[in-house]
Write a structure and sequence with these properties.
Layout lengths: L2 E4 L21 H8 L2 E4 L6 H11 L3 E7 L7 H9 L2 E2 L4 E8 L1 E6 L5 E6 L3 E5 L5 E5 L5 E7 L8 E2 L6 H12 L5
Antiparallel strand pairs: 1-7, 2-8, 3-10, 4-11, 5-8, 5-10, 6-7, 6-9
Length: 181
């Protein structure tokens, strides 16, 4: 089950959980309704059959694997800063966690941050146009499969990006309600 919560406004280490006091958890249904984020928990040891079904049904034709840690990622500190800048993409962002853990933060309808913890077996799909960011947790390591429709595009568009078509379409879908997928 997804582990997500509303974040506090603390400027302390971004790798900490940043719960409100008291914590306010966000259910998968609320996350989906407010943000359009899709989530699956796959068997971390035997994920191929279910992952292949999802890839086929959603048209994901390209994948690669990224490892984010001080030892594995060149320019680690700089890359982590870029990942943590609030941004959108013009395509979905699809990540399947193979090892390690981290956090994806997404904005809800009230423009508050929801922190989504990802661990092995988590498949997360962020819709095109959603403001989001990523950081590691205190373990400083994640290995994730990145999935794409067609040629991979990694271009982040930092906030503000409200004039971009992908953002306008996302806001429209958020107002009208996200379709069941």
């Amino acid at each position: 089950m997804v582990n997500a919560w509303l974040m506090d406004n603390s400027d302390e280490d971004k790798r900490n959980e940043h719960h409100l006091s008291p914590p306010e958890y966000v259910s998968l249904e609320k996350l989906r309704a407010d943000t359009g984020v899709l989530y699956w928990k796959l068997d971390e040891k035997n994920f191929e059959p279910e992952l292949e079904k999802i890839k086929s049904s959603r048209g994901y034709s390209y994948s690669d694997v990224i490892q984010v840690s001080p030892e594995k990622l060149p320019n680690y500190e700089e890359k982590l800063k870029i990942f943590y800048e609030e941004h959108i993409h013009t395509d979905e962002e699809i990540r399947f966690v193979l090892e390690g853990s981290g956090y994806f933060d997404v904005r809800n309808k009230e423009d508050k941050w929801i922190r989504i913890e990802v661990t092995p077996g988590d498949l997360l799909i962020l819709p095109a146009g959603i403001y989001h960011r990523f950081t590691l947790d205190t373990k400083n390591y994640i290995k994730a499969m990145r999935l794409f429709v067609g040629v991979p595009v990694w271009t982040p568009h930092n906030r503000p990006a409200d004039d971009m078509d992908a953002r306008k379409e996302y806001v429209r879908m958020q107002k009208e309600g996200f379709s069941e997928e």
